[in-house]
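haha ok so turns out i had the wrong file open the whole time. this is the CORRECT one, sorry everyone. sequence first:
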Amino acid sequence: MVNLGYKLMAEEHDPRALVQNLIAAEQAGFDFSAISDHFSPWVEEQGHASFAWSVLGAMAQATSRIGLMTAVTCPIMRYHPAIIAQAAATLAILSGDRFVLGLGAGERLNEHVTGEGWPGVGERHERLGEALEIIQGLLSGELSNFRGRYLKLDHARLFDRPQRKPPVILAAGGPEAARLAAHKADGLIATEPKPELVEAYRGAGGKGPCYAEVSVCFAASEEEGLKTARHYSRWALTGWKVMAELPSTEAFAAATEHVAPEMMAQNVAAGPDPSRHLEVLEKFRKAGFDHLILSQIGPDQAGFLDFFQRALAPALRRA
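then structure:
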């Protein structure tokens, strides 16, 4: 069975709109939701970057059934992992155990703001491994002190901790990160339909859910959908190796000047035809992902939610 998630792009909508969109997504029948956690939008056209954890608190009180998740939070620079563990425990209690903590190694765009620089990829992954030990240990109540190469914990304890530990899901762009998810997390999340990621996770002993984020743009026509996708989401074509390193919206604008609307078709299912959207989603399902997060690009969230309820959800549930 595939669980269907709704992406809350905090870079494209203000915090009040995000809460209203989630209420509508719950009514449309989504199983869970996932919110981005950024200090900056990718490009100026997106225009927003609210504090995800405040929005999540409001969402926990505004809904009753739909799951909540971060996709994803970086716990290695801008946040200390102890603070993320405390936030996750609080959200789990407020939501009645509906919260899942999605973690990743982050990007320079969001993490450099504290003025501590941006380390190379090797150090980032080492930091992430240490952060996972701290977060999992605090959430389970089994750790209060930690001294790693980069991160430390000194007599920490979560006084408000849910009876059931919230699952910790780790983002992976390659097999090494997928194996790390198997060893230190409770599940996997990715953005590409690569079966080798799921195979690496399962091969290393991972038994948890496998999430995938899928970009879509429901619109009156495919042409209109691709234009909207280009306007708000052309940054995604740069790829993770570039996305992790660029420092500002100006840099992303310069790096994506060449992107034409039709180029977005390689990453985005666009337009009003359900078969096109289902074709893209099926690639992820066949790759082994059992939790699909649908990310509607642009302002027309109401139109997309109607499209999902009317056309996509019934076909996906049957599959």
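Residues 82 and 135 are 6 Å apart (CA to CA).
again sry for the mixup
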